[in-house]
Each structure stands twice: as C-alpha cells, then as structure tokens.
Design goal:
- This protein has 158 residues and is of the alpha+beta class.
- Helix content is 26%, strand content 39%.
- The protein contains two helices and six strands.
- The strands form two sheets. It has a three-stranded antiparallel β-sheet, with no helix packed on it.
- It is elongated and about 80 Å long.
Length: 158
Amino acid sequence: MMAVKATRQRRTSYVPLLVVGGLLAAGAALSYFLFIRPPAPKPLPQLSAEAKTYVRHLGLSGTEMKAAQSFVGGTVVEITGKITNGGGRRLRLVELNCVFADPYGQVVLRERVPIVRDKGAVFQPGETRAFRLPFDSIPQTWNQTMPQLVIARIDFDE
C-alpha cells in the first residue's frame, strides 16, 4: 500500500512542472511577437502631385545593361545611362523603381534606387548626369532583358 501512495505523489509532482513549462513557452512566444519580430516595413514615399507633373521634364537616355563577374564569383548586372533635367526646377533627389520580370511577365524583383542623390550637388535645370545601377541579387528566374525603369520619387530643392 505504501508503494501506491508514493507513485501518486510522484505523478502529482510533475503537474506543477508542466504548468510552469507551459507558461514559460507561452511567455517566450508572446515576447517574440511583441519584442523580437521585426516591425512591418514603412511604405516608401510616393510621387507627389507636383512631382507627377514634373516627370515629363526628366529624360532617360543611353540606357544599357551589362553583366560582369564580381570579385566573389557572382554576377553583377549593371544598368548605365544618363538623366536630363529638362524642366526649370532644381532637384535634390530622383529615385527609380527598377522592375525585373520573368519570361511570363511576372515581377521577380522590384528595387528602388537613387539616380540623383541627396548628398551631392543639386541637379540643375538643363543638366545631364550619368548614372550606374549595380544589381547583384536578381533571381535566376529573371528573363534577362532590360528592366522597366519608372521614376518613383522626386525631391525638389527649395
């Protein structure tokens, strides 16, 4: 009879450990969702109404695409060209969306890149600048053609 009592005591002694373990697992999951999980990315700024009307004054020309081997053995795709400010406003920043597609026309990569940077000299009216856009993370399913280049942002100099 004593052996039966000892067995019952051992079974009941595991219950608090299981409860504590369950609470710890629930706490870990809750802390992951509250503190560790990265926040949702902020949406990128869109073209303002003023910038949408100014886009017609910006011209891309001489765009070419080349592939080269990187130092680490991968392939780097470079898009080079020129942008001309044909309007009457000074610009601090111009960004492009480069949209790469697969053979079926499905988007496989959309990357936003600056072609006129905020840190350099202001892009003057009538000025033409060369740009170079390197890409080293294009998916293998890409159709190997020139991506669609769309002006995504314009910041004016005040």
